[in-house]
């Protein structure tokens, strides 16, 4: 069913009632804009399934109010981008949420299992992926494209129900609840200059350079939002590196910076210079602290090897994806005595306690017939 007007949307919502859950997905374009352009919303429960054309002359408020109902579980696969779009466009903070990819990792389906794999496992159906890369803004929509879009939610209903049973069977409902609660936290969508700065992985930083970098990535983000274009179209990461290590004193110097191009002229150039100058004039005490990299030198490589072995053993034994339990960073921080997500919740019960015992020498690992074992010391 394709919905292109408000009345049909209202009728559909009335027909679907207040179900215990709905499967949701979105189709969007994001190559040329800062904010992804929402093109379709797919929704299904039971025999009710629809593709909502968000680019048509339609008021989506009835759908938004429907989705605000906390009594309805909103089911996605790989929910992150969908949740960001719904927050950006409608300030819609969905709760409760269920992500079938995360739930599948909890149930032992490996790291980042695909939707097609889950559908094949639970429904014995192969999804035709030929329409996966489509310009969803083009109208009219072709029938095969609509069928593909609907399949993203109709099969998801069955996947959700099977995963829900498996989670209950394994007694891991609290694990999943912890993970899904994090998905509903809209603070994750907020821009943080320190997060963008870390992604650039720049070495030999000082507090002053870091202040310039934070200022520049913030300026880039705000300008990208205003113009609604990708941040890389405003100024590339390569240019940011050059500006931080070779800060220009005037527009002429700015024009020599690598990758600046037309940004050296007009208002953009003045704003870049002003941002750099403000950082240069900032009292050192107000500059952001540089992460202490000496701790990296203290990371015991042998300890990491043992922790990885323990993680593999624990996850194999409990049939859960290692990537969901602990990242490389988690293990490194653990060796330094830093509090991580392994310090509490289901991860601590499953792995964190054992990892701490291993680091304290209270347990050791053995290898017998190719299998790892745990020996508790007296």
% residues in beta strands: 5-15%
Mean pLDDT: 91
Low-confidence stretches: none
Structural class: alpha/beta
Rounded to an integer in angstroms, the radius of gyration calculated over CA atoms is 25 Å
Instruction: Note the total helix count.
Output: 18
Q: How many strand segments?
A: 8
Q: What is the CATH class designation of the largest domain?
A: Alpha Beta
CATH architecture of the largest domain: 2-Layer Sandwich
Please list the strands of the largest sheet in the order they lie side by side: 1-4-3-2-5-6
Fold and architecture overview:
This protein is of the alpha/beta class and 378 residues long. The protein has three domains: 187 residues, Ribonuclease H-like superfamily/Ribonuclease H (Nucleotidyltransferase, domain 5), CATH 3.30.420.10; 94 residues, Orthogonal Bundle (DNA polymerase, domain 1), CATH 1.10.150.80; 83 residues, HRDC domain (DNA polymerase, domain 1). Helices cover 52% and strands 12% of the residues. The chain has 18 helices and eight strands. A six-stranded mixed beta sheet has the order 1-4-3-2-5-6, sandwiched between helices. A two-stranded antiparallel sheet has the order 7-8. Strand 7 and strand 8 form a beta hairpin. The longest helix has 28 residues. The radius of gyration is 25 Å and the shape is flat.
Topology summary:
Blueprint lengths: L1 E2 L2 H11 L4 E9 L7 E9 L2 E6 L7 H7 L5 E4 L3 H11 L6 E3 H7 L8 H9 L19 H28 L2 H11 L9 H7 L7 H21 L3 H4 L2 H9 L5 H6 L9 H16 L12 H5 L2 H18 L3 H4 L2 H8 L9 H15 L3 E6 L2 E6 L2
Parallel strand pairs: 1-4, 2-5, 5-6
Antiparallel strand pairs: 2-3, 3-4, 7-8
């Amino acid at each position: 069913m394709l919905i292109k007007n408000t009345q049909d949307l209202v009728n559909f919502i009335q027909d679907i009632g207040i179900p215990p859950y709905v499967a949701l997905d979105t189709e969007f374009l994001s190559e040329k804009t800062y904010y992804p352009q929402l093109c379709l919303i797919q929704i299904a429960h039971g025999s009710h399934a629809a593709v909502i054309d968000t680019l048509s002359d339609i008021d989506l408020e009835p759908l938004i109010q429907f989705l605000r109902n906390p009594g309805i579980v909103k089911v996605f696969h790989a929910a992150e981008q969908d949740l960001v779009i719904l927050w950006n466009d409608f300030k819609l903070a969905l709760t409760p949420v269920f992500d079938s990819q995360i739930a599948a990792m909890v149930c032992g389906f490996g790291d980042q299992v695909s939707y097609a794999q889950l559908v094949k496992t639970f429904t014995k159906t192969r999804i035709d992926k030929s329409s996966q890369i489509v310009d969803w803004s083009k109208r009219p929509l072709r029938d095969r494209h609509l069928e593909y879009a609907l399949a993203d939610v109709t099969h998801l209903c069955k996947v959700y129900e099977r995963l829900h049973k498996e989670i209950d069977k394994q007694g891991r409902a609290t694990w999943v609840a912890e993970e899904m609660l994090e998905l509903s936290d809209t603070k994750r969508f907020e821009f943080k200059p320190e997060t963008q700065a870390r992604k650039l992985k720049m070495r030999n930083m000082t507090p002053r350079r870091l202040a310039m970098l934070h200022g520049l990535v913030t300026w880039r983000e705000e300008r990208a939002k205003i113009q609604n274009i990708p941040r890389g179209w405003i100024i590339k990461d390569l240019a940011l590196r050059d500006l931080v290590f070779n800060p220009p004193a005037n527009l002429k110097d700015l024009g020599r910076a690598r990758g600046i191009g037309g940004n050296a002229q007009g208002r953009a150039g003045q704003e870049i210079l002003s941002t750099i100058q403000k950082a240069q004039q900032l009292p050192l005490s107000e500059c952001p602290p540089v992460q202490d990299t000496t701790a990296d030198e203290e990371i015991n490589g042998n300890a990491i090897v043992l922790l990885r072995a323990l993680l593999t053993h624990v996850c194999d034994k409990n049939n859960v994806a290692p990537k969901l339990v602990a990242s490389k960073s988690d293990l490194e921080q653990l060796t330094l005595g830093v509090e991580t997500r392994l310090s509490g919740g289901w991860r601590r019960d499953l792995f964190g306690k054992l990892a701490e015992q291993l680091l304290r020498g209270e347990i050791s690992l053995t290898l017998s017939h190719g299998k790892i074992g745990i020996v508790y010391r007296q």
